[in-house]
Amino acid sequence: MTGLVAALWCVGIGLTVLTTVTLLGWVAAPKTALGHGLSGVFRTAVNFWLVSHHAGFSYGHGRVGLLPLGVLVLPGALLYRGGAWMIRGLGLPARPRIAVAHVATALAVPYALLAMLMALAVSAPELHPSAWQALLACFLVAVIAGGLGAARAVVAAQVAAEARGRRVRSGLGALLRLLPDRPRSLVIGVAGSVAVLAAAGAVLVGGSLAMHMTESDRVYDLLAPGIVGGVLLLLVELAFLPNAVIWGIAYAVGPGFAVGAGTSVSPTGVFLDTVPAFPPLAALPEPGPAPAVSLLALAAPFVAGAVGGVLTIRTMPSATSEAAPLWGFMSGTLTGAVVAVLAALSGGPLGGGRMATVGPSAWQVGLMAALEVGISAAIAAWAANWRILRRPEGEEEPARRRKRRKRKARPAAARTPEIAVPAPAPVPEEPRTVPEEPPAPRPSPYAPGPLEFEEAEPVLAPRRPRGRRAPDPLPELIADEPAPPEPEPAPEPEPAPREPEPDERDGKVVLEGHIVEDPEPEPEPVPPPREDPERTENRGGAIYVLREEPRRD
C-alpha cells in the first residue's frame, strides 16, 4: 500500500509539471501544434511524461526513439524522494540490502503499471505511445532511482544511529556503503573511468559549439521562436545535452556517430548530408578530415582506464599479487558495458527514411571502449599494486592519511566556542587517608586439578640421633613376624655386652694433653610403669610389640 501511495504521488507531481509546460507552449505556439483543446494538451503532456522515462512512440511517418536523456531528471528526482520516504517508515532495518530491494520493487511495480495504463489511455491513430516500452522503461527508472533514494536513507539512519558525525551526500555513495568490499572497488573504478570519458565528451562538445557559434546563431534566427518559444527551445536543448556528451564519448573512443543513413562523424573522417535545423547540430564539423585538435580526445579512453585501474586497486580491502591486472581489466570491461548502454540510450530513429539511423552504434562503441579502457586499466592496476606491495608495512597511503586527518579535524572545527567563565577560588580540603587495600593475589593461569591430596601426618616421631648417653630403659626392638594376639611372645635373649672402643681409656678422657677423670653421669629419672605393660606399633607395614622391663643396675 505504501508503494502505491508513493507511485501515485510521483506520477501526480510529474504530470502537473509537464502539463504546465505544455500549456505554456500551447499558448505561445499555434493552437494545433500541441493538440486540439485542453484534452489534446493533456494527451500531449502524458506523452511528454512517457518520453521523460525514455519510452518511445510512433506517428504517421515512423517511430521516434531519439529521446532526450536530460528529462530523466524530473521523474528520477521524484522517485528518489519516494524511495527515501518509503524506507523511513520502516525504521532502521536489520538487513538493509534486502530492505532496499523490497522498497525499490514495491515502488516500481505500481509505477510501471500506472505508466502502461496511461500509455494505453492516450493512444490515438496520429500518436501511438509504446505500452511495452512504457512498462519496461518506467520499471527500470523506478527501481534505480527509488533504490538509490532508499539506500541513502538507510545509510543516513545508520550513521545517525552510530553517532559518527558524518554525512552521506549522494545515493551512489550510500549504495557503495551497502555493497561488499570487492564489488565496491569495481563500482568505484567503473565510476572513475566513466567520469573521465564524460569529461572528455563534454570538452569536445563545448569546444565544437564555441568554434561554430556563428552557424548556431544562423539556425536560431531561421527558426525565429520568439520569447516563449525561445525559452522552450532552450529547455529542449538542455534536455538533449547529455545525448551530445555521449556522442562526444563515442567520437573519443573511435567509432563515432551518425546523423542519418550513410553519414559518419569519427576521427577517421566526417561524412555528412542534410541535417535537421536544430541549433546544437550546428556544432558538427565540416565534411572532410577530422579536425586535428579533436584527435587529442583519442587519449581519453586510455586515461580513463588508468584512473579506473588505480581506483580499483587502491580501494581493494587487501593487496593482491597476480590478480591485480585481472581486476583492472574487469573494471575496463564493465566500463565498456556501461558506455554501450549509454550509447544505445542516446540514439535512435527520428522518423522513417534517412533519419532512421541517428546516434552511435552501441556494440561498436562498447567493444572499443572495453578493449581500450580494459588494457590500460590492467597495466595501471599492475603498477599501482606493485607500488603498494613495495611500500613498507608501517607506511600509510597518502589518501588514507589525509582522510584520517580530516576525520580528526572535523570535530574540532565543528566544536562551538565556549565562553570563558572565571572559576571560583579552590577551597583547601583536608587530605583524606584512605586505607590501602592489599593487592589481590594474581590468579594462577592453570586451573586447579579435580583432586588434591594433603600430606599425611607421620605416624611416628622422627628418631633422635644416637649419641653417648645412658642406656635406654627399653630393650632393643627385634623385628618379628606378626603373631596372633593370644599367645605371649617368647622372652628376648639378653644382648651381649658391648666391647669398649679404643678411644675410651677406662673412664679417662684426654683433653688437650691432660688426663681428666670422666665424671659419672647423673642417673636419669625412671619413668613410672605404664598401666599396660605391652603395646604394639606399626612401622613400615610390620607390627612391633613393645614391652617395658625393669632397669638393670
TrEMBL record:
Pfam families noted in UniProt: DUF6350
Skewed-composition ranges (Low complexity): 411-422
Cited InterPro entries: DUF6350 (IPR045931)
Residue ranges, compositional bias (Pro residues): 436-448, 482-494
Superkingdom field: Bacteria
Alphabetized UniProt keyword annotations: Membrane, Transmembrane, Transmembrane helix
Keyword Membrane applies: yes
Compositionally biased intervals (Basic and acidic residues): 495-517, 529-538
Region (Disordered): 394-553
Keyword hit for Lipid metabolism: no
Residues that span the membrane, as ranges: 6-29, 66-87, 99-122, 134-160, 186-210, 222-241, 248-272, 292-313, 325-345, 365-384
Signal peptide (residue range): none
Basic residues bias locations: 400-410
Descriptive protein name: Integral membrane protein
Species name: Actinomadura verrucosospora
